[in-house]
Write a sequence for this structure.
């Protein structure tokens, strides 16, 4: 049987089965554990508000799990129809960043509203306390 | 109807609307605000005058204070809509019963304030919009913006509002109206037909009166800064949002 010149399915299998380089694996594990620790430290020192911690912790744990358990990454790659584990990582990273951005946009909108209300309040209080420069009585 | 009956604060006691305040949002209007305030005083309006200085750096607040107005100064620039809203909040807090709002650049004529006030005092309307059917001098909206205006004029008609100049800064509002506008739904940049629709949906009565307007001495309206496409987009969005809010209110209604 003559195989077609480009058997894309087989090519994909080859890419998916390609063993991960030991250095890549080591770097991924070290990097993801470092991120996880940094987040823990930030939470502990209350530099990161509780409200923001769940999504970051999920991200950090997910990164560690994926860098240790390589077969899981391959399974996900297969499931979503990607060709290489690295595309899966980029894809998930992008999703994560978009989620974070959207979250910040929502927060910013409500912060903007709060700042406006506060500024109006300050302006009115200043007028009422007569501390405005040369407001006639 | 329009006889000689004294309508205004002159008659105390049983007149339901006796305390009004003229709200003037001002941003960098030091050269003009003094003249505007003097013309209001000279025309003998009974309302108190409140200038909202929206974080100007040119001494607008001092000029306005010297001209005898109450002055509220935003700590920084918040936008035209937010300045108006500060005026509403102030009026609400200090027990005023109606607000007359006008621009600080002299394009609205103090002598025409009674035209806006009268329908309020007669109880015929909750919001009176002064429209520039007649222009003293040319007002030229750009093409796309003109198109946008046309579109929203038409949408407004569909919704049952007959206001030809929804962006007019020359309005009189009953307490019912400015109380509603103290909420967070009020836009911080430029209130437009979205705000009038909101009021209409809450059962407030709108009325338009013809006024003359001098063209702004700066040669452009406050709104010329907004890009036409963004304007159309913003209006579409806020109309959509307010229609959803209305539907929710309706859905929630019978269950209660």
């Amino acid at each position: 049987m003559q195989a077609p010149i480009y058997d894309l399915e087989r090519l994909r299998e080859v890419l998916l089965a390609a063993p991960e380089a030991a250095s890549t694996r080591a770097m991924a594990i070290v990097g993801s554990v470092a991120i996880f620790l940094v987040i823990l430290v930030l939470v502990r020192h209350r530099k990161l508000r509780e409200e923001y911690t769940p999504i970051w912790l999920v991200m950090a744990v997910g990164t560690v799990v994926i860098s240790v358990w390589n077969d899981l990454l391959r399974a996900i790659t297969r499931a979503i129809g990607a060709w290489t584990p690295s595309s899966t990582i980029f894809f998930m990273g992008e999703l994560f960043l978009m989620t974070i951005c959207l979250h910040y946009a929502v927060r910013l909108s409500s912060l903007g509203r709060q700042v406006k209300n506060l500024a109006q309040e300050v302006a009115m209080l200043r007028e009422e306390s007569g501390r405005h420069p040369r407001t006639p009585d | 109807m329009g006889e000689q009956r004294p309508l205004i604060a002159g008659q105390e006691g049983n007149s339901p609307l006796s305390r009004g305040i003229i709200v003037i949002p001002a941003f960098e209007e030091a050269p003009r605000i003094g003249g505007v305030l003097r013309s209001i005083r000279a025309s003998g309006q009974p309302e108190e005058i409140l200038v909202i200085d929206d974080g100007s750096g040119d001494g607008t607040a001092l000029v306005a204070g010297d001209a005898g107005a109450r002055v509220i100064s935003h700590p920084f620039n918040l936008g035209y809509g937010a300045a108006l809203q500060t005026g509403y909040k102030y009026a609400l807090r200090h027990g005023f019963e109606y607000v007359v709002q006008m621009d600080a650049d002299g394009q609205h004529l103090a002598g025409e304030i009674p035209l806006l006030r009268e329908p309020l005092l007669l109880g015929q309307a909750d919001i009176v919009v002064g429209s520039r059917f007649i222009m003293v001098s040319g007002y030229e909206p750009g093409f796309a913006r003109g198109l946008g205006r046309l579109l929203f004029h038409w949408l407004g008609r569909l919704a049952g509002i007959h206001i030809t100049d929804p962006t007019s800064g020359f309005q009189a509002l009953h307490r019912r109206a400015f109380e509603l506008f103290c909420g967070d739904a009020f836009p911080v940049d430029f209130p437009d037909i979205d705000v009038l629709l909101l009021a209409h949906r809450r059962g407030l009565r709108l009325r338009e009166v013809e006024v003359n307007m001098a063209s702004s001495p700066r040669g452009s309206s406050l709104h010329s800064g907004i890009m036409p496409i963004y304007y159309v987009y913003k209006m579409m969005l806020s109309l959509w949002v307010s229609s959803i809010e209305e539907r929710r209110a309706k859905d929630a209604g019978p269950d209660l």
The helical segments of chain A are 8-17, 22-44, 53-68, 70-80, 85-128.
